[in-house]
Amino acid sequence: MGDPKQFTLITAQERLRDQVAHALRAALVAGELRPGHVYSAPGLAADFGTSATPVREAMLDLAREGLVEPVRNKGFRITEVSERDLDQYTELRALIEVPTIGRVTQLATVEQLEELRPGAEEIVTRARDHDLIGYLDADRRFHLGLLALAGNERLVETVGDLRKRSRLYGLTRLDERGQLVASAEEHLELLDLMVAGDTAGAQDCMARHLGHVRSLWAQARDVPVEPHPRHRLGSR
Predict the structure, then answer these.
(1) Residue 11 has pLDDT above 90, yes or no
(2) Which of 146, 153, 124 is nearest to 202 (CA)?
(3) Which of 34, 54, 78 is the last residue in one of the domains?
(4) Could you give the CA distance from residue 191 to residue 71 in angstroms, rounded to a whole number?
(5) 73-93, pLDDT tens digit by residue?
(6) Rounded distance between C-alpha atoms, residue 209 and residue 29, angstroms
(7) CA–CA separation, 33 and 27 (whole Å)
(8) Higher pLDDT, 224 or 94
(9) Are residues 98 and 146 in the same domain?
(10) 153 in the same domain as 101
């Protein structure tokens, strides 16, 4: 058996790494970390009130998700996503998700669909509470949960990867304008149509939702986001 103290230390290090990664994702979503800019691990560590090691480890996690890229001897650059990239990601998602939603509407039981209702309601709640990271997490779980009912794990993985690469920019601005709640409520509309067995309606709703999300990206990118001081880990 290994040393219990060593195991406890490793667990604590992993937990800190996860906390830092969560904080970095929050800063990305809020627009505090800007696309194209290079940030050093020591500099970010000072902002977050921690050492540089968990920041580097967390940044490597984000690099695997395509959110940042290492820059030798400098730190990490926040990856830039062009309008063309966003258009292509949206097109791919529509090609996959719209027909899959139609198939799930036909195949899934009402019980299976209703199990996802708390997730759809959580998206709306998170939007109303201005919890942006919680909103994105609930949104991801709901969409991937619906797609999982089609029984194709690779399809779910593919859409999950597309979602990471087409992350929202300047979500804070959209939240301040109150536009996030309307987008969140579309998830309940989609679920109601699926429960009712309205295949065409569900597919149309999914297509509209993806179109709305794309337009939100465009609006967010058009409005500059003022930098905000990052909170130290553990602060509220």
Answers:
(1) no
(2) 146
(3) 78
(4) 43
(5) 899 998 887 888 888 988 999
(6) 20
(7) 6
(8) 94
(9) yes
(10) yes
